[in-house]
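Hello again, I could really use a second opinion on something today. I've been staring at a protein lately and its backbone has me curious. Can you walk me through what the C-alpha cells say about the fold? Take your time with it, there's no hurry, and the full record follows here:
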Amino acid sequence: MKKKYTYPVVLTIAGFDGSGGAGIQGDSNTINALGCYPTSVLTALPVQNTSGVKAIHSIPPEIVALQLQTILDDIRPDAIKIGMVHTQELVEVIAATLRQHPDIPVVFDPVMVATSGHRLIEPATVNKIVSELFPLATLITPNLDEAAVLTGNPICSVTDMQKAGAMIMQKGCSHLLLKGGHLPTATLTSLLFDKQGVMATYMSEKIETNNMHGSGCTLSAAIASYLALGENLSDAVSRAQLYVHRAITEGADVAIGKGNGPLNHFFEPQKRVKKEKPRYK
C-alpha cells in the first residue's frame, strides 16, 4: 500500500523524569494527547521524583549530537521543543543542529529551577544559553524564577513582569512568553512579548493544587504541538494555555507520589492527525 500520509511530528530535546510528569515523559504525553507524533532526544538523566531532584547524570554531548543526527536524518519534525539543557557543551551541540534547520519553529523552555526550588544549571551555562539558543528560538517560555535568574531581579507583580520581559527581549529573543503562575494572586497572568513589546495578555483562574509537576514542560510541548498542527504563534500559545489549565483542573484531585503531582495530560485526548505526506518525506 502506498503511504500517502504522515503525522505532525514534534521533537522534544529534554531531560528524563522517572516520575512521569515532566521532561521527555511529560512532553510525549502532551504531544500524543494533542494528536501529534513525538520523537525525543535525551539530554540528561535527573534522579528525581515528585518531591524533587536528587542528582543529575549528564548525557555526553557527543551522544546527544548522535541522537539528534540519527532522529533528524530519519524523521523531520514540524516543530521542536527544547527543555533541560544544563551544560555549555550541550548548548553548543543543540545550537549547531538548530542552525542547520532554520525553517523549523523552536519552543525553548529554559529549565533552570525545578518545581521544588532546586537550581539546575550553573551561571556560565545560563550565559551560553542566552548567547547561543535564545537567538535561534521562535519562542522562549521562562517562569518567574527563571526570569529572575535571567534578569537578576525578583519579580513580584505584573508590573515587574512587564519590566523583566522587556529586559529579556533585549537578550536577542524573537518572542517571549513570561509565565506568571508563581505570583501570589487569585488570577494567573502570562505575557507574550515580541520586539515591539507586549503582544498579548493571558489571564485565567489559579487552581489551588500542588499537582503542578511538569506544567512548564507541558505548556511548551503544547505550544510546539499546535505550531506543528499549523497554528500561528499567538493562537498556539492561547490554545496551549487552555490545554494546560484543563489538564491542571482535571488532575487537581488525584494523588500521585508524595510531593508535587502531575497534570492530567489525557483528559480529552485527540485522535492522531493525518496529513498529506510532503515530497521530502
